[in-house]
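Bit of a strange request maybe. I'm writing a small parser for structure token strings and I need a real example to test against, not something I typed by hand. Could someone generate the tokens for this chain?
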Amino acid sequence: MTLEKATLPVPQFDQITLDDLKQKIEQAIEQGQNFLNELQEVPQSIQAQLSVLDKIDTLENNMGESWGILSHLNAVMNNVETRELYQTLLPALSEYYTALGQHVPLYQTYQHVHDASLFDTLPPAQQSAIKLALRDFKLSGVALEGENKKRYAEISARLSQLASDFSNHVLDATQAFSKPLTEAQLKGLPQSSVELLKQYGQQRELEQPVATLDIPSYLAIMTYADDRELREELYKEYVTRASEQSAHPSFDNTPVMEEILSLRQEMAKLLGFDNYAEYSLASKMAPDVETVNQFLVELAEHARTPALKEIAELKDIAKQDGIEELKPWDSTYYSEKLKQQQFNLSQESLKPYFPAPKVIQGLFSVVNRLYGITVVEREAPLWHADAHYYELEDQGVVIGGFYFDLYARSGKRGGAWMSGFRSRMQTENGLQKPICYMVGNFTPPVGDQPALLTHDEVNTLFHEFGHGLHHMLTEVDNISVAGTHGVAWDAVELPSQFMEFWTWDKDSLDSLSEHIESKETLPEELLKALLDARFFQSGMQTLRQIEFALFDLNIHKITPALNATQIQATLDDIRQKFAVLPTVSYNRFQNSFSHIFAGGYAAGYYSYKWAEVLASDAFDRFENEGIFNTQTGTEFRKAILAVGGKDTALDAFINFRGREPKIDALLRHQGWTNT
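Reply from user aminoacidic:
Good idea to test on real output. This should exercise your parser:
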């Protein structure tokens, strides 16, 4: 099939060189620095002041585009040269953003506009952008002077470098391990998993199947391998990545974590906060640290009873195999057996019904029914054969574009994410339309067959597409509050978690599923089993997320900053209180917890659960009015997806729901209550 060419201006990935990127990024930094150097005082007229604000937006747009391409390539096509350039440019970028955030005449210019009589006549989005900018100036140390100002800049630069180091160590440690497998070790694995491991072997020029720590391989072993020793070996390799317990001390993140925590606490103190958790919460929807802590502890209480029942069932089925003490490397394996026993369901039996092309087509169909938008694949230069480019059309008009890069491969960071490449913005050349990347690490295609997804992967695809819609369906033209920009971090997961509900609906599952051979949709008995198993181990899963969130909150709340021993002790203490399956002493989960040490979730991991309350409550309205009710879809798009950071997260939610959020729907969606 011949595709039409992209209608939006897209990066020429087939022509981009690292030298080009280096030049563009250095040029963008230089332009920004020159502008800041020239701005010595607040301009006299209000129009000149507004021009300064426009110029800052233009500079940010240029910087985001050039740095965004390098950052993206560093995540999906990581190699020595790309990483080296990224690391080389990071200090200059950090220095520029620190100078921007601490530039007193620029801050005063924003303040003058805010205080002017004209402010109330500005568009609401611009008013919100100015208010958020003033808050961010204060959180960037604009009021600091002398040595404190200099120290803040040093801390910012160092933290940028440490986050990159942490991420690199996790990637390198993950890729350092591979293990050729014997025929006996494959016992229990379904044929599709065996073929995948053989493909990994062929990529390494081996005739044997090979196990790696990439998620598709790791999960296949942990879920299906009858060989308990093999499961234990892979588990140990996985949970000791980037730690002193692993065979690769050069990737150890222990000193990196210690320094990150120390610098974060020092930065918070410089800015007048008691600890980094307080600093983090200053820009979020949740009012304070204690409210978050109480929310998590209360949610844990709801989850505890179901979790204890779930772990008892797991121990019982393991005992049938003579396992007297359930270990962490047994839980996924016996969970799969238990699911088959209780619901006659396995991920493997579902996979043939979820070929990736059909799932993607079904996703686009769901979105069309909800919001009246159409997705069209278009031809555009790409960085890898796995990637595809699409455009979003509303009544025949292109409103945004996005890339999918969905499969795990060497040189690609783990996890799944959406990142904006270009934001919606009014420029001197007219309206710039948004484009984003959506990246996954799903099970790749094997041989000539399309990739067959697990239902968990289908869920993840919908989740990331929710983020993508938030970026692309914005109707705000101011870059700093368009899409996900300016949205409180603990509300940014609302659109993504909201989209997941459509992977549990019969109507949408019919459009998502088609057997790879028979072309039938999901049969009634499998559909029933899938829906019956929806709440399977929801208590244990919730406690696990709460464990991560409380660990994150506590290590950023406690002062002085914790050392490695204290970090471990904090995690052990939380596990003792909340975990229902004890772990092993060598587990170093924290050493690869990239969300909080290399992502944006420091003292913010609770956001997943906080936003889940919002998502559940929002979906509750769809349940009452019809989950494909176009009017409700239009209102959700208008109140939540379109407004970006123009409205506060709470105001946006109230505009859609007509009231403040309640936890009732979340408890019901976990299967813990009926109302």
